[in-house]
Amino acid sequence: MTAPKRAIRWHIGVFLAPAVLIYTAIMILPLVGTLQLALFKAVENVQTFVGLDNFRTLFGDPNWSTGFWNALRNNVWFFVIHMLVQNPIGVMLAALLSSPKLRFSAFYRTAIFVPTVLSFVIVGFAWKLILSPLWGVAPNLLDLVGLKFLFSPWLGKESSALIALSLVSVWQFVGIPMMLIYAALLSIPDEVIEAAECDGVTGMAQFWKIKLPLILPAIGIISILTFVGNFNAFDLIYTAQGALAGPNYSTDILGTFLYRAFFGFQLQVGDPNMGAAIATMMFLIILVGVCFYLFLVQTRLRRYQF
Amino acid sequence: MSKATASPARSIAAHGILILYTIIALFPVLIVIVNSFKSRQAIFREPLMPPTASTFDLIGYVTVMKQGDFLLYFQNSFVVTVVSLFFVLLFGAMAAFALSEYRFRGNTLMGLYLALGIMIPIRLATVAILQLMVASGLVNTLTALVLVYTAQGLPLAIFILSEFMKGVSDDLKNAGRIDGLSEYTIFFRLVLPLVRPAMATVAVFTMIPIWNDLWFPLILAPSESTKTVTLGAQLFLGQYVTNWNAVLAALSLAILPVLILYIAFSRQLIRGITSGAVK
């Protein structure tokens, strides 16, 4: 024995153990278990290994594949609408809020964030009532600005239900990009802004040329948060349109599709293995998105940071 | 020079947009609460008017109180949220301390392992979680929800708290060690009190999704005695969909506690987001 060996530091283990055990047992192992279940099938109540059969069913059997592609397509739309509406509005609101001489900015901040803390159940139902043709709130409001002819029962029409629900979700979550961008804008050093002003770069030009490039990392973060949140969404659709994601599956997204596959609906019996297969697909989609962000987007954005 | 950015027209335009958006954000919430105090006819005839003496009616609240077991649901939600929060904060802080304080083999790897859960939603593991809970007899117990929410909250808590714990001065901890304090005393007596603001931030971030979650109560604990308020409201609303008074009253009852808590803690929450979230 040369150098005296350090005693085993038991306290590190004690500090780590509870978190690691719970996290591993309730999150990681079930996640692995779910991926594994996707490779099995109940044959006469015995789980049998079937390789990729479930995925072959999911993509090959028209009963499943039409539902899956429909849900995936809707989910992509759901995400696109969030990216095009929620994040630009969030950036705009943050840019307005961060101007140093603005009064009442704490009030605006607090008020605009209110919908984000409400549950999907409240949001889904409240909007369902407001958009309902039975209760005249939406038509009355449109009447006030002379646009009553635009009203139609958006949530009940196949062509508009998904867009309407996406916008409701945008309404609910616009506070998150707003806050994160706001924080990023506040962290820009004053010297940078002063230097820009000395060079005569002010107002809109200052925002586009100086601030926007500096907050790109924050925009990257909200994009990936939106992506993960959207491809994992379920509650709003379930609350507003039920598990069948009506009308005629036009608002079906992967979360509701997974729910129906797992628990069954109407005449179809629930199938945990097919549920696991769909969850695996969702896992892969999210994984691809996260890797794309971590390895392609984030590494390129880093050079802008101070 | 900076005058150009603060011209009156610009500032009026800024206020105009912000006021407009504030109305958009608050209007649906207000209209639900306002109408919940009105009689059925007034709800339909003049949905945009506040209740007057002749249209004021609490019938909706009476129905909710009579029909739904909302007090029990509230109690369930409260227990689940508080207990999960306690475990997330305690275990999360302990793990964050271990990761940020000690250098040991596998430290970075452990940090990455624990951070996985920030990006990968626990919902994807539902199928196997349900099997696990069935196998251990925990279906329809609040314990199942507490376990799931603790696991769900830990990754972000550990991530945020270890960032903050790196900022606690080493001199303080070493002084404690020289005085013969054990590592546990250093953690509980010296470090924990210093990261209390970060703990509050984590608490708010952890609490909101737990309180609002519908998915796991629906799947793991849908029985009458274990319903959370979110699930209870969902079922109540589905059942009473034609009774507008009751629906509006139930929605208002679900909104108010969250709104009050939010207004009480909004400063904490906003400071948390603006200080630590973007690195």
Automatic annotation (TrEMBL), chain A:
Pfam annotation, one family: BPD_transp_1
Residues annotated as transmembrane: 12-32, 76-97, 106-127, 163-185, 214-237, 275-296
Boundaries of every ABC transmembrane type-1 domain copy: 72-295
Keyword Transmembrane attributed: yes
Membrane topology (UniProt): Multi-pass membrane protein
Predominant cellular place of this UniProt entry's protein: membrane
Record InterPro entries: ABC_transporter_permease, MetI-like, MetI-like_sf
Protein's cellular compartments: Cell membrane
Domain of life (superkingdom): Bacteria
Keywords recorded for this protein, A-Z: Cell membrane, Membrane, Transmembrane, Transmembrane helix, Transport
Family in the record: Belongs to the binding-protein-dependent transport system permease family.
Stated name of the protein: Sugar ABC transporter permease
Organism per entry: Ollibium composti
Lineage of the organism: Bacteria, Pseudomonadati, Pseudomonadota, Alphaproteobacteria, Hyphomicrobiales
TrEMBL record, chain B:
Domain of life: Bacteria
Gene3D superfamilies the UniProt entry points to: MetI-like
Pfam families listed in its UniProt record: BPD_transp_1
Compartmental location: Cell membrane
Sequence intervals crossing the membrane: 12-34, 78-99, 111-134, 146-165, 186-211, 244-265
The family this protein is said to belong to: Belongs to the binding-protein-dependent transport system permease family.
Name under which the protein is recorded: Carbohydrate ABC transporter permease
Organism, as annotated: Ollibium composti
